[in-house]
Amino acid sequence: MFERTNPASGEKLEPIPEMDDAAVEAALARADATFRQWRTSALDERTALLARLGDLFEAEKERLAEIATREMGKTLKSSIAEVEKCAAAFRHYAKHGPEFLEQSDVVVSKGAARIRWLPLGPVLAVMPWNFPYWQVVRFMAPAIMAGNVGLLKHASITQGVAAALAEMVKKAGGPDGLFQNLAIKSGAVDKVISDDRVVAVTLTGSEGAGSKVAETAGRKLKKVVLELGGSDPFIVMPSADIDEAAKQAVTARIQNTGQSCICGKRMIVHSDVYDEFAAKFFDGMKAVKAGDPMDDGTDMGPLSSFEQRDTVLEQLDRMQKAGATLEFGGEKLDSPGAYLTAGVLTGVPRDADVAKEEVFGPIAMLFRVDDIDEAITLANDIPYGLGSSVWTSDAQEQERFERDIAAGMTAVNQMLSSTPEAPFGGVKLSGHGRELGPWGMHEFMNMKTVLMPG
């Protein structure tokens, strides 16, 4: 059974049964049979299904959002926004999917050649709890459009969301077996990956989970896309709009209660504007209201679980023992939920191991640097390379940041976010491969070369 707890109240939610081996086998057989039909389905059929899914997600956004908020604690308004983003992604692939699949001609020395995009088969998605709809849909929508079928292994605490996702595909008229929820725990994943009917795996999660999945898939020579952790730099230079940078820094750090791979976690600020930025950033972080996620006036809900809150508290303790100063925050609320107030650390020793970890909670690290070279060096001095946000009005500085920050994504004068149109992913321990746009769709397709006589 999957035991679930509402992190806002500590209330036990109804447990969800775990699938046994026979049920998993039946799901794999359905996926295999459905792929044999869906792979040759008309593009109009695929786009119509995605469009219906977009409409359904929009129509049922409040119901879907409440499931996520109860299971993992994000504010209801942010859950609704997440479901709306999913609706937009379905519509994006419904509109642009056919052009992503168009064949193209290439010049060869003799005869003629063209490139075709063909589906691979059933793909397993191992997904996390922090954006329980969006993380799945950014795989699901392009997979359906590509002619693949999907199998979802979702996080244990968001099994209600997982069931809702599978239900929505059926409600939209998707064929049985097109997208199935595998209600299994982590220990059962290796067997599914190893099954010959599963052709590839995509995972969003920790580097530890990514390493295990990649190892299993590697033994079977199966394609893997990994979107792993991040400790993104948020760099502020003297030419930046300090008011806007400080405001966006607060939003970046506390969105989803700081439980986002791409939210700014390390604020790296030039010494010329450090004091001004720090004052405004501190004021903004102190004003963050943590509380009932169902209340529209709440800025930040609880962490996803008591275990996750304790992990952040343990990291805070190690940082302070290493010499950092907790300026404020990082406190439990007097409530039954897994709450933690927004906080800021200064003076974090740059060579401390804990300073290079990902803090998955509403705690920021603030650093002072004297020039752009030091900013880039500090930004890159971690094992991760997912995203980054840079604030400058200097074109030469912008070019340096774009070129020299070792990350899969850089946002200029804005906080980083994902969008259906642009590729999403990282480098180093943040993983490999890309999601979204045509690039994400093509990750799980056969780029087939067809040679013909001239």
Cα shape: globular
CATH class assignment of the largest domain = Alpha Beta
Within the largest sheet, what's the order of strands? 12-13-14-11-10-16-17
Percentage of helical residues?
40-55%
What are its keywords?
454 residues, alpha/beta, Aldehyde Dehydrogenase, Chain A, domain 1, Aldehyde Dehydrogenase, Chain A, domain 2, 2 domains, seven-stranded mixed sheet, six-stranded mixed sheet, 19% strand, globular, succinate-semialdehyde dehydrogenase (NAD+) activity, NADP, oxidoreductase, Ald_DH_N
Structure explained in plain terms:
The mean pLDDT is 97. Helix 2 runs antiparallel to helix 4 and helix 9 crosses helix 10. With 454 residues, the protein is an alpha/beta fold. The chain has two domains: 250 residues, Aldehyde Dehydrogenase, Chain A, domain 1; 187 residues, Aldehyde Dehydrogenase, Chain A, domain 2, CATH 3.40.309. The strands form five sheets. Strands 12-13-14-11-10-16-17 form a seven-stranded mixed beta sheet, sandwiched between helices. Strands 7-6-5-8-9-19 form a six-stranded mixed beta sheet, sandwiched between helices. The chain has a three-stranded antiparallel beta sheet with strand order 3-4-20, with no helix packed on it. It has 14 helices and 20 strands.
Question: Briefly, what is this?
Answer:
With 454 residues, this protein is α/β, with parallel strands linked by helices. It contains 14 helices and 20 strands.
Write the layout of secondary structure elements.
Blueprint: E1 2-5, E2 12-16, H1 21-38, H2 43-59, H3 61-72, H4 76-100, E3 104-106, E4 112-119, E5 122-126, H5 134-146, E6 149-153, H6 159-171, E7 179-181, H7 189-194, E8 200-204, H8 207-219, E9 223-227, E10 233-236, H9 242-254, E11 266-270, H10 271-286, H11 306-321, E12 325-328, E13 343-346, E14 363-369, H12 372-380, E15 384-385, E16 389-391, H13 395-404, E17 411-412, E18 427-428, E19 431-432, H14 437-442, E20 445-452
Parallel strand pairs: 5-6, 5-8, 6-7, 8-9, 10-11, 10-16, 11-14, 13-14, 16-17
Antiparallel strand pairs: 1-2, 3-4, 4-20, 9-19, 12-13, 15-18
